[in-house]
## 1
Amino acid sequence: MSGRSLSYLASISVDEVKGIGPASAKKLADAGIRSVADLLLYVPRRYLDRSRLFDLAAVPLDEEVTVVGTVQSVRKRRISRGRTMIDAVIGDGTSSMTAVWFNPYMRLAEGSTVALSGKVERFRGRLQMKSPAVDSLAGESLTTGRVVPIHGAVGPLTALKLRESLANALARSRPITDPVPDEILARLDLVDRDTAIGNIHFPETSAAADAARRRLVFDELFRLEVALAKQKQLQVEAAVGVSHRRAGPLVEAFTGSLPYTLTGAQDRVIDEILSDMSEAHPTHRLLQGEVGSGKTVVSVIAMLAACQSGYQAALMAPTEVLAEQHYLAIRDLLATAGLQPQIDDPDAPDGTESLFAAEVPEGKDRPMVRLGLLTANSAEINSLPVGAASRTHLLDGIAGGSIDLIVGTHALIQEDVEFDRLGAAVVDEQHRFGVYQRVSLRDKADEYDPDLLIMTATPIPRTLAMTLYGDLDVSLLDEMPPGRRPVVTQHVHPESEAMAGVYETVRREVGAGRQVFVVCPLVEESDKLAVASATSEHARLKTVFPDLRLGLLHGQMRPADKEGVMTRFRDREIDVLVATTVIEVGIDVPNASVMVIEDAGRFGLSQLHQLRGRVGRGEHASTCFLIAAPTTADAEQRIAAMVATNDGFRLAEEDLRIRGQGTVFGARQAGLKDLKLADILVDAELLVSARREAFALVLKDPELTDHQALAEEVAVLLGEDVAWLFVS
C-alpha cells in the first residue's frame, strides 16, 4: 500500500510536528498524546455549524442552542452556603444575554469571543443561560467555513494552536493507508481512513464530520474485536481441554431430585454448558442471571458433570459469607439428591481415593459427593461433623482426590492448595476478582485447561459484554422461577413524615412472621462522611423497636460470629438484621420481605439492585425502601431508576449511561485504555457489525497472514493491552 499507516505514524514523536516544541510535547504526553498517530486521533469534542448558530435577537427559548458572542463584562461573587457565582454579559451585535455559572474555577476574559451552548430563558426580563458549556474561539474565523471544529486545549497549546499543529501533521502524513479490506468498507458504507481522519478535524459539512466519526468509531471497535477473535481462536486451537460426560449418575440423580421444575432458561443454559463441556477444548463461558434466577443450580450441575467424569470441580466466591452460603446450599442440595456421604464416614479420615476415578459398576449404589469448604478461617468436609475437619486434612483430601467438589474464597488459589484432577472451575461474582486471580484458579490444573464458568448476578449490557468479555461464550438466564413477585421500591427522604410509614411497615411485617434487612454503608461512624453506620444504626433501632429482636452483621466480625448471626437470622431468631453490604450477594432468606437501605444515594446502581434482590425470594410480597436525600444529579438518577424498574438489564444500561464508559475498561481490572471515540451504547449497531466482521475475518485468516497491516495496527495501537485480553 502506498502512503503512511497509523502504525508507522505511531512511531514518530509528536515533537516532529511543526509548532510543537519540547515543552508542548511534554504537556501533550501528559494527556496521552505522544506520537503523530495519537495527535491525529485527538478528535474535536464537537463542531459549530454556522447554519445552526442563532443570533441573540432571535434565539428560541427553552431549547438546546449554541450562540457566539463577545464577553462584555465578567463578575465573580460569593453567594449563600459558601458557593461562588460567576455571571458574564455576552453580546453578538444583535442583542445581549447574561450567562451564569456556579463554578469558582471558570475563567473568562473580557473582549474574548466564545461559543455558549445550553438553554436560553428569560429571567427578570433579560435573556439568561445557566451553566452553559463554553468554548473559546480566539482567533477563529466563523465566516470562512461553515463547520468549525472545537478541539480541547492541552496545556500551553490553545485550541487554535492545536488545530494549526494538526493541519501540519495531516499535510505531512497523507495519504494515510487503510488496513481494513475494501469489501468490509463497502458492506458497511464506510469512508476510507484518509478521508475520515481529514474530515474528522476539518470537515466542510456536518455530514462529512458524521461520516468521519462513524468510520473512526468502527476502527476502534474493530481493532478490539479482532484481538478478541484472535483470543477465541487461540483458546480453541492451542489449549488442551478435557471432555466431560453429559449424562451420568450424579447429574441424573441431582436433576431428578429437585423439588421444582427448572425454568426454560435454565434448561437452555444447562444444555449450552454441558454441550461445551462434552467437547475436548476448554469451555470459557460467562453465565449472566438476575438475582434469584437459578445460577447456583446450573453451576452445581456443571460441576457434577465434571465429577462424574472422574475430575474435581471448584467454586470460588469473593467473600467468606458467600462461600459459606454456597457450601451450605450445595450440601443441602446433595443431601436431597441422596449424594451426601454419611457423617463420620470411616473412610474419610484415611483419605479415600476419588469415587469418580472409575465407572460405578451397574447395580451398585451411586457414589457420594465429598464436598469441602476452604476459606482463610474455615475448613469443612461434608462427610465429617461440623468443625471436625482440619485445614491439613482438607488440603490432603484435595491433593489426593478424595474431595470431589470444593467451595472457597481466594484461599483456593494459595500456593499450598494442590488439586489432584481439577476439571471444572466456577468463579462467582467475577467482577470482584482480578484477571490473574481467575486465571490462577484455572492454572491449578497442570497438564490441561479445566472448563471455566464465570458467573455474575450483576447484569451486563449486551454491548458491554461484547467488549469486556468478547472472547467468552455468553449464556443468559433471562427467566425467573414462577412465583417470584417483583419487589415494590419506594424512595423516602430521611427527614420526611414518610419515615413513620417505613417503621410501621417493619412492625407489620415482623408481626406477620416476616423478617427485615436494614443496610448501612459503613461499619463505624466516620468523622469525614455524614452517613449512617451499622453499629450506630443498630443501637438507634433498638430504641425504635424495643420489642423486636435485632441482630448486627458486618465484615469486621469474626467468621464464626458472622455465621452465627446468619444462622440465627435464617432460623428466624432475629427479626431485623442491621448489616453492611456484606449481605449484598449470596444471602438467601425467603422469609425476609423488607429491605431498608440507609443513605441509598451513596450506593452504586448495581449494588442497590443486588441489595434489593435479598428480598422477594419467597412467596411473600416484598418492599424495598431507599432512604436518601440525594445531593448529586447522578444519585437522583440512580434512585429514580430503582423506583422505576426491577429489570436488572435495564438498570445496567442506565448505570452505564449515568457513569459513562470511562469506567468500562477499569471493570476488567486490567490496563486497556478507554475508548476515545466510541460510545458502546450510542454505537451499539456499529459494535455488532465490528464484531461480526472481525470474527469472520479471523476465521478465514487465523494468523492474519493476508492482513499484516491490520495485525501490526492491532499490536501497535493496543500495545500491552492485547496481553491482558489474552488472559481474560
Note: The domain at 54-141 is CATH 2.40.50.140 (OB fold (Dihydrolipoamide Acetyltransferase, E2P)).
## 2
Amino acid sequence: MTTIAFRLMRETARALRRATQCHVQEFRRLTLMAFGFSILGAFSPARAQNYFEKGHSPSFTEAQAERGEAAYAASCANCHGANLDDGEFGPALKGATFQQNWGAQSPAALLSYMQQKMPPASPGQLGAQTYADLEAYILEANGAESGAADFSVPGGAAAAPVKKQTFQRDVFTAQENRDAIYKAVMAHRAAELANLTPVTDRVLRHPPDGDWLMWRRTYSELGYSPLDEIRRANVGTLQLAWSRALPPSANEITPIEHDGVVFIESGSTIQALDGVTGALLWQYVRQLPDVLLKGSDSTLRGIAIYQDKIYAPTADGHMIAVEAKTGKLVWDHEVVVPLSGEYAHSNHDFRLDGAPIVVNGKVIFGVSLGITNPNGGCFIEALDAETGRQLWRFHTIARPGQPGGNSWNGAPVDQRFGASVWTSGSYDPKRNLVYFGTGNTYDVSTLLQPHTAPPGDSNDGLYTESTLALDPDTGKLAWYYQHVNRDVWDLDWVFEQLLITLPMHGKPTDLVVSGGKMAIFDALDRTDGKYEFSKDLGLQNLVTSIDPKTGKKTIDPKLEPVANKPELVCPTSNGARNWPSTSYNPNTHILYVPLAEACMDYTWVPGTPAQTAAGGLDIRFTLKTRPHSDGKMGRLDAVNLETRKIVWMDRQRAPFASAMLTTNGGLLFSGSQNREFTAYDASTGKALWQAGLNATPSSYPITYAVDGKQYVAMVSGGGSPLDGGDHSLAPELDNPSGGITLWIFALPSAAK
C-alpha cells in the first residue's frame, strides 16, 4: 500500500468518526476496515477496549496524532515501515506483536522507552513534544480514541522530564533473539553491576588505587594516579583497547570509574560502561526542553559517585541522582529556573557545568553565569545526597553586612554581577573545609564607574577572583582570600584548588594552591588562608609586582581601563591557562601546567547607567599573538613548587587542549589542538608515545585499573570554547568538531 493511499484511508476513517461520533468499538472497526487490515483476531476491539479501560489510555488530540504522524514519517518510518508494522528493520508498532510486548505496560512506560532508546542513532534527541506526539500517533493506530487534551509526560507539560516512570529492561519484540549467548552476556553484565560496592565516605577519602571516583580522582584535585603498570619503559606499546561514540555535547568531559564500571555524562545522557570492553550496561537519557538543543551545546565537566548513586548536573539546570546499578532516576532537584524570553534558546543565565563533590552526605557544587549576567551573582549549594533537598546556599557576591559586603563601589546587590563557580571544589577532611575558586565580573562598569559609596567602601568586588573556604556542613564562610582585587580584564581565578603539603618554615605545611588565567599561582595556608608564596610563569603583563607578605598584586597603571580605548593585555581572556587543569605529583612536588602564549586587545565599552544597572558584557577582546612570537603558542611547564623553579618546558605550535594527568609510572598525559594525545616522560618532558584522535581531545583524561590491568581514558570531539577562541592562533589546524568519542588505551597483554 502506498503512503498516499494509506493517508487517504486514514483520513476517511477520521471523517467517519467526526461525522457519526460513533462508539469507540465501532470507530475502531471502521478504522480497521478503512485500512484494509485483517488483524481483528490478533488485536480485537474487545482486547483493545480491555487494555485501554485498565487506566492505560491517556488523552491526546487528533491534531497531536497528526503531528506524530509527520514526525514518524521523518524519523521512524525508515525502520518501522510506513504503516507501523511493515518495516524491514524495526519491530511492529501496532497489532498483535506490539500488544504482546507493551499490552501490560502503561503509555508512560512506552514514552520513557522511546525517550531513552529512540532513534537508535541519537536517543532522546527528538524533543519532548515530538516524543509525546509520536506516542499519540502510535496509540491512535492501536485503537485509542482522541480527546480534548494533548498527551504529555507524567507530571506536567510535554517538555518536562519523566521523573519516576521507568520502562521494563527486558522488553523484546518477536524479532529479537534471546538465545544462550544473549543470556550469558546479559547475565555477565548484570553480575558486573550487582558487584558494585558502595562508595562510602571512607572510600572517597582513601580510594582504591585503581578507581577514579571524582573529577580529579581525589578530594585534593591533584589529577594524579598511583598506578604504574604503564610506565616509561613500556608506554611506547600502548594501544587502543576500545572506543565508544558518545551523545553530542560541548565536551570538557570527565569519566569516573568504580569497580570496573566507567560512568560518563555527555549531552543529555549518562551511561554505565564495562571498563574492559565498553559494553553499555545501562543508559539514562534526560528529556531536555527543545530549546536546549538536546544538550549538544552543554558543557558538563563531571559527575560524582557516593554510596549507590551517581550525581550529575544537567543542561537544564538540575542536579539529579540515579542508581549506580540501574540508571533509574532517584531524585531530581531544580537548581536554577529555566530561561524565558530573549535568551530562552541558550540557557545562558545560570549554568551547572562544574562537577559536584560529595562530602559528609552532601552534594556540593557551584553555579556559573552565561551571557545574561543575572544580578546578585552566583552561588555554591549543598543538597542532601539521599533526598536532593537543599541544605544550604552560599552567595559568591558579598552582601551588605557580610565580610566584603562594602566592596562593590557603592552598588546595590542587584547591580553586583559575576563570581561564577565553574570548577569543582576540593575538600580537606582534617579541617572539614571545602575550597572553591570564583571568577570575575563581566559587567565591569559597576567597579569602574563612580557610585554613591558609603565611607570605607572599596571597589574590590568580593568575592570575585577568590578562594573560598566553607564549612561543608553549614555553608558558613571560614575564610577567603582575594587573589586579584577588582579584576576587570576577565582573567578568572576560578580553577582547581590543589591541596598539597610542602616544607615551609622548617615543617610540613598544608597548602591550597591555585592559579588564575594569568598563570600566577598563589599558595595559601589551608587552615586560615594566610598567604605563603606566588609563582608567576611569565606570560602576563598586567601585574608589575606581588607583595611578598600579603600576595597583593600591583597593576600596571598604563593598563587601567579607559573607556573605548584598546590596550594590549597579556594573556588573552582565554587565559595563559584555563579550564584544562594542572596535575601535581606529590612525590616529586612537580606541578604540570598547560599554557597558551597569546595576548589581546582589550577595550572597555561602558553602557548607559540603565545598561550598567541591568548587567551585561561591557568588555571586548581581540585575540593577538604575543609580540615577537616565534609561532609556538602551546606551552607545557613542569614547575617544582618546593623550589619554585621550572624543571622543564615544552613548546609547540598547537595550544594544549586537555587537562593534565600524571601517574606513578613516571608519565604525564595531555592532549593538544592538533588532535594528538601524548604521553611524556614526566621528569624530562620527552614525548614517548602519541595517538592521533578523530578530533581535539578537549577533556579531562583519567586512568583506572580492572583486575590489575591499567587503562587510560580520553574523550575527544572538540566543542570547547577554547577550540573556537584559540583556533585563530594556528588556523591551519582545521580540526573537525563533534564526533564525541571515548578512547580507552591499554598495554598489549605481553607488554607488562
Note: Residues 3-141 form a domain with the Cytochrome Bc1 Complex; Chain D, domain 2 fold (CATH 1.10.760.10).
## 3
Amino acid sequence: MRSPKIKALYDQAVALYQAGRLVKSLANYEQVLKLAPNFAGAHADRGLVLRDMKRLDEALASVDKAISIEPSYVGAWNIRAVVLRDMRRLDEALASLDKVIALNPASSQAWSNRCAVLAEMNQLDAALASANKAVSLQSNRADAWNNRGVVLRELRRRVEALASTEKAISLQPNYFDAWANRGQLLSDLKRWEEAAVCYSKVLALKPDDELLFGHYLFAKMAVCDWDRLDDKIGKCAAAIRAKKTTLPFPVLSLLDNPALLKSAAKVYSDAQYPRSLALGPIPRRSASNKMRVGYYSADFHNHATTYLMAELLEAHDAARFELYGFSFGPSQQDEMRQRVSAVFEKFVEVSGTSDANIARLSRECGIDIAIDLKGYTVGSRPGIFAHGCAPIQVQYLGYPGTMGADYIDYIVADRTVIPPGSQDDYMEKIVWLPHSYQPNDSKRKISSKVFTRQEVGLPKSGFVFCCFNNNYKILPETFESWMRILKAVDGSVLWLLEDNPTAVKNLRKEAAARGLDAGRLIFAGRLPPDEHLARQRLADLFLDTWPCNAHTTASDALWVGLPVLTCMGKSFASRVAASLLSAVGLPSLITSSRADYEALAIDLALHPVKLAGFWLTLEDNRTVAPLFDGKLTARHLEASYEAIYARYQSGLPPENIEISS
C-alpha cells in the first residue's frame, strides 16, 4: 500500500504526462522513486516519459528496472517494446511483445503493436495475421484497424487497406495516423483530388507536419491545382531552411535550388533513415577475379527504370563482373522481369524481408558494390543502405539528386547534370560518365501500328507541340510559356498526357484564363508502351518542363525521332534533358532561359525546314550516338566500378572520379 503522499505525487505525474507537460511529469516521477525506489509502475511510466522526450537509452533503462522488480509486469514489457521500436532494435521489440502475449494472450494492444513491428521488419503476412488477431479480440480498436491498413497497403491490397483505414477513422474521427494513411492510399489509387482533401484534414489536425505538407502539395500538383502555389512553395522552402523534415521527391519538381535540395534530402535522411550500426562494420575482403555488383530495386518489371537499364545489364562483362539482383517490388512475371532476371548470377525476391536482413544477405553474398536504383522514389528502401549492405554504396538513375545520406558513397552522373564546381551540392562523391549518365535500350520496341491524327484526337492540320510528362511536373511558369507559344503559332495544338480527369479540367481552365481556346489542349490516354512510342511520331516538337525535366519520357521521344526542346536549370532534375540532347548530338535544342525557350519553339514551328533539319539529324544519330548505345554505357559504368573499387582496396576514401570516353 502506497502512502497518500506517494499516491498524490504519482497521480499528479500521470496527469502532467497526459497534459503533455513532460519535464514536470518526469520531475514528479523522480520524487516518487526517491520515496519508493521499488515502485515498478513509476519506473515503467517514467520510461514512457523519457521515450517521449527522445531520451531512449534512459527510457529503456527505466523500463528494464521496472521489469527487474516485477518480471511479469505486462505494461512494462509493452512500453519496452515501444522504446526498442523507436531505437530500431526491432528483433528485441518483437521479443518483448511476444513476452506480453505469453503473459496475456488476449492483449489486443500487444497484437496490434506486434503488427506494427512486423510491418517495419517487412514480415507482412505475419503482420497481417497479428492485426487480424488484434481486431478479433477487440473490434473497436482503432490503432489495430489502422495498422492492418498499413500492412494491406504494403501488400498492394489497396482497396482493402482503404476500408480498414476508414474503419479506424470511424472509431476515432480525429485519428491523425489513420487520416495520413488514408491520404497515402488515395494517392496510390491516383484519386488525387480526394487525397488532397484528406491531407487538408490531416494538416488541420497537425499544421506543422512538413512531411504531410509535402504529400498534400504533391497531390495538388498531380491535379494541376495551382491555387496559391507560390505561397505553398515558399512555405516548403522555408521549412527546408529551418531544417524541418520534408519529402525530398516533390521538392525536385518545385525548386531549382541545388543547395536547398541537398538540405531537404539530408534532413529527411537523418530523420527517416539514419545510419544503423546494428550489423557492425563490413570486414575488408581481398579482391577476387570477379567483382560482385548488386542492383537493388522495386522496378524489375515493366517499368521506366528497367526499360532504360535492360541492355546495360545484358552488356555487363560476365568475365569480370557477377551481377546480383535484389528485388523488393511486386513479383510480376512480365516481359521485362523475365528479360532482366535472366541476366543476374543470383536474382533474389526480398520484398518480404526487413532492411536489416536484406543488408545481412547482401553481406553474405559478398557484394562489393551496391547500386541503389530507387533513391527516394515510390517503393524505395533506403534503410537497406543505412544498414550497410556493401563496402561501397552507389546511387544511380532512379533519383535525380543527392540522397543527403553519409552512407551513400557515390552518385553516377555526367558533366551536364552535375557540372564541375557544383560538387558541394551533393553529399556523395561524383562519378562522371563521359556522355550521358542515362543508359538506354537499343532493342526497345516501337509498335508497327501507324496512328492517324483523327484516332488520337488531333486536328487534321496544324503544328503539334507535345509533352508527355506526368502532370505534376507542369508548373504555372512552364504553362504560361506554352500558352505564349501557342498564341504565336496559328492553328497549333498542345498534346498532353491525360494523367487524371481533374488535371484535364484544371489545365483547360488555366488555358481559358490566359485567353486561349481550351480546345487547343489535346489529351492522350495511356497506351501500351510500344504503341505510346509509335503515336508520338504524329507530334512535331516535344516541349519540356522545368525545373523537373522529362527523363525517360525525353528518351522515349528521341528514340522515335521526335526532337525535344528543353530549358536547362541548375539542379540535376532540371538538366537531364540537356544531358540526353548532348549525347544524341542535338545541343542546339538546349536553352537556358524561358525567353530563349519560347523564341526557339516559335521559330521552329514557323520555319518547318529548320525543324526538319533537327528531325534528320536525330534520324541519322539515333542509332550511332552514345545515348542509345547500351553497350558503351556498360563499358563506362564498369570502368567507374573498377575505379571506385580500386580506391577501396587501396584503403582510400571515396573521391570524385571522371571516366574518359
Note: The chain has a mean pLDDT of 96.
## 4
Amino acid sequence: MTRRLLHLIAAGVLGFGMVGLAFAEQPRRGGTLRIAYEADITGMDPHTSLGIQAMYVEQNLYNTLVTIDENNEFVPDLAESWEVQEDGRVYLFHLRKGVKFHDGTDLTAEAVKWNFERLLNPAEKVITARYFEPIIEAVDAIDQHTLRIALKYPTNTLLPALAIYRVGFMIVSPEAYKKWGSRDLAHHPAGTGPFKLAKWQQNQVIELERNPNYFKKGLPYLDRLEFLIMKDGVTRATALRAGEVDFVNEVPLEHAERLADDPAIHVYRGLDASKIYIPFNVQRKPFDDLRVRQALAGYGISRQTISKVAFLGLAQPLLGIIPPGTRGHQDILEMYPFNPGKAKALLKEAGFDERKPLEYTIMTHAAYPPLPTVATVIKTQLESLGSVKVKVEVIDRPIFLKRIREHDFDQVINMALPFIDIGARSYLLEAGEGSLNQSNHTDFHVNELLDQWRRAVDAKKQNEIGQELQRYMAEHMLMPVVATRPTIQAARDTVKGYVYLKGMKVNFETAWLAK
C-alpha cells in the first residue's frame, strides 16, 4: 500500500480539502455527471424501497426537513428554521415558501403532515416508522408553512431521525401517492429534490434530470445524472481511469491504492461509520440455540483474518454493532477471541460433531464485492472445525433484499449504510411488528434498552446505555458483526463541488463539471 493512501486513510478525510478548493472556483452550469453504480435499485419510494443503492438515488430526488453538513451538524433543508419549546417536548418547524414538488404541487405543512400520517399508518409498512412511533405524540399544521411536532417525552433523537437516520425523513408528494398508489409510487417518484426521474432502464441506467424549479437558488449546476449500472468492480475502476465515467460510488478495495496514486483522480474516504454484519435467523433451528450462534459467529471465526483477507487491510475487526466512526463506539473484541477449541466444544454440547456436522447456508450478494470473500473465509474457518459444513449462496441484490425481508435465510452477510449513532439501527434491531429485525429475534430487552437510550437526554447516560446494548447484542449474538466497511468513493478531477458526507448521504446538488 502506498504511503499516500495510508496517509489519507489514517487522516480519515480523503477529499475534504479538495471539496474546499472546488468551491473556490467559479461553478459552471450544464453537463451530465456519469456515475459508475454498483447495483440496480428496488425502487424510489424513500418510505418503502430497500437497499443502500436506492437510498443514494433517492437523496437526489427528495429533501428532508433537516439535513447534515460535512461536520455532521444539523442544518436547514425544507425547514428554514425551527424552535424547541416546552422543555424539549415540542418542535416548531418553519417551512420554506415557494417550494414545489416535481409534479407541480406545493409543499405545505399539510403535505408534510400527510407524510407523517403515512409513516405512522401500520398498513403502509414504512420501514423507518420505528424511528418516530416511540417518540411522536402528534403532528399538526399550524398554518401553510408552520409544522408542529409534539413529542411523548423530551428526546434528542428527533433531529437525527429527520435528517439522517437511514435516508432521513424524505418528503413525498401526497398527490403523486394519490395518483400512483403505494405500490407504483416507487417507479414514479415526486419529491422536491434537485433532480427528477427522467428514465430507468433496469440493470442498465437510472437517469435523473435537473429540476428547473429547485428551491435552492442556482442549484443544481448539472443538467443530468446518469447512474450507470456496473456490477463488476474492475469495470467501474477501469471506466473511471479511462474517463468513461466521472464518479465511482463504490470503489473496489483492490483498486483504491492505484486510484489514489492517479493525479487525475480524487479519492474520498472518511472515518468508518459502516460495518459488515452476519446475523442468523434465530427462529430456525439450530440457530435458536445460543451455543450454536456463539460457536459460529463468536469463537469459531477470526475477525482479524477476515479484515485482512476480505478487505486487504483497509477494514478493522469489529464485534459491536457500533463502528468506530459512529457516536458511542465501544471496542468489545475481547468478548469473543478466536478459539476453535471452544467453538467445537459448544457445537458438541448442541449435538454437532464430525459424525453429525451442522450443515447450513450463508446467503450474501456481490453488489459489494468483499461480501462473497467474507462468506468464503468464514466457510473455510468453520469447516476447519470438522463439525460444520457450509454452503455459500451469492444472489442478485434485489432478490437478496426480498429474502431478507421475508427472513428466508439461515445466515446472511450484509453491509450497513454508514450511520451517525445507534438510533439509526433501531429498525433493524428491535423485536416486534414494524421492524426489519434481520435476526428475527423476539428479545424485547433490546427494545427496552433502545427506549432507555431514546429517553436519555444526558449524553453521558445515553452513552452508558448504548454500551450496555452493544454488549448485550454481542453476548446473545443477535446481530453479530465481523468488520468495519470502508466507504471509499472516487471522482475525476473535473468533478468539482461534491460534498463528501462519509457515505451517509450521496447528493450531487452542488456538484459541477470543469470540462
Note: The longest helix spans residues 459-475.
